[in-house]
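Bench log. Compound arrived from synthesis this morning; before running ITC I wanted a structural hypothesis for how adenosine-5'-diphosphate sits in the protein. Inputs:
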Amino acid sequence: MKSLRYINKYFIKYKWRFALGILFTIISNYFGVQMPAFFSESIDRFQNQISSNEPVNYLWLALELGGIYMGFSLLKGFFLFLMRQTIIVMSRYIEFDLKKEIYGQYQALDQTFYKQNATGDLMNRISEDVGLVRMYAGPGIMYTINLAVSFILIVGKMISISPSLTLFVLLPLPIMSILIYKVSSTMNKMSLEVQKEQSLLSTLAQESFAGIRIIKAYQREDQTTEKVSQSAERYKKQSMRLVLVNAFFSPTIIFLIGLSSMIAIYYGGLLTFEKKMTVGGIVAFIMYVTNLTWPFASLGWISSIIQRAAASQQRLNEFLLRKPKIKNETDLSCPLDHGLILDKVSFRYPDTEVDVLKNISFSVKKGETLAIIGPTGSGKSTICALLARHFDPDSGHLLIKDIALPKYSLTDYRRQLALVPQDVFLFSDSIANNLKFGVEQENLSEQDLTDACKKAHVLHNIQAFQDGFQTILGERGVNLSGGQKQRISIARALLRNPQLLILDDCLSAVDTETEEIILDELQKDTQNRATIIVSHRISSIRNASKIIVLDNGKIVESGTHEALLTQKGAYFDMYQFQLEQELQVKNT
Ligand SMILES: Nc1ncnc2c1ncn2[C@@H]1O[C@H](COP(=O)(O)OP(=O)(O)O)[C@@H](O)[C@H]1O
Ligand SMILES: [Mg+2]
């Protein structure tokens, strides 16, 4: 329950709407309570008229009773409508605010968070969990207030008619409370399981859609379907058990309320014989007890709503109360054009045991191209991730003008940087919008797009599409080849006109000739920026100002291409090996 305190700030935000909702609930219940009271008076008056042998105008009596009863009903209904309009609408606003807050938090959190949480889970929290919390903020709160108000008003009226009968009639209520408490805690446990299974199910489904090509290629459709249907089956079973408990619940409550009615008739009857109560009083009592039925029967439902919401909010709080490790802490603008130095940097990924980078030092300046080469898993992409500040190093520093990177504005630093990652990602949008993604769009002309695409050697591909730059990519559009995607990603990075350009093995799906064309193009304006190229092909980094050879997280050699060849070390071996392979390819 404590977890739900988190959304109190929203109740404060919407306090006037909330207060109005409570007022409407009270007014609506006031009219609801007037109806039986009015009925009871009319019956007594009617009985008196009969016993005193006065002539009775039945038609008039019926019209009077019906008319006033209808009037009260309409008033009660009207305020019930207003109650829903204020409180339920408030809960929709809260839902909207909460979703916005969570989405904002998703955007703020760093890579570590995304490594630890499955996409399906993230999706579930922003839809399912927020939905359940809304059920608390809306119907849950509304019916609780309604129950409290109607209980106070109705019991007040009952006591004013007959305190002793009230006591008898309310006797089954404590039994009911205990029952409700027991059942709802069982339901809480069950619904937690249901929620967990649901998360698992959506993660499974999501992953199988994302990996559909692999599933088909390895002919695992049946196994995947089996896995999903097993999870769905578990979800169904658990939900059914929950429904079963729920189904027993309401009839039991209604039975107990029926018991109250019987008591009202029996003891009320006795009291009437003793002339301590009127017939109208009994009728009023029965009506009051019936009016209490729904609010009380809904108690179990309310408590399960609140408990499910508490469980959901607890899951949300795990995210919401988490502080991103890497965030904008200062406004100090970042002079990246002065170059960047890595000073004895070591790094290990969160929740892992070994250092992935050990004591890495190098520098890169404007006008320079630094190349990083090394076998898979040697830590090249990790260096790129540190350069993009997806993570900060555990020891050592990234320095600009002798000041550690975290001292500068993160926004300003990232603004001057462009990263082309190893696994390219394009959005399901037009090519133009993908290209413009990293830039303030107004500042870009069609010419800029053309220039960048020409440099990335992808313009001719784009022009071959019927819709050119407006071609839609992704699920509902054109599927590009790996190489085309990589080249569009490079153009996207170039459009940012960065001070530091990082190319993480992003030409792996491009053939050697095209790679050379692109690198030549990039070479033309390297004077305006610092470039870091990660590659496994020696041919593509030959012209770099400096080459770093990485192995198992350590720099094993560094220098220019010529210097490294004369060293006859790891680089030289790699060179020999790649030359031989090239020759073999040419000969076949
Ligand atoms: N997110 C991660 N969490 C834990 N370990 C990782 C993560 N990413 C990479 N690694 C590990 O770090 C090492 C270096 O990986 P990486 O930098 O991707 O190498 P490269 O780009 O040179 O192929 C590998 O051993 C890899 O398993
Ligand atoms: Mg890599």
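What the model suggests: DSSP finds 19 helices and ten strands in the chain. Residues 221-273 form the longest helix (53 residues).
ITC booked for Thursday regardless.
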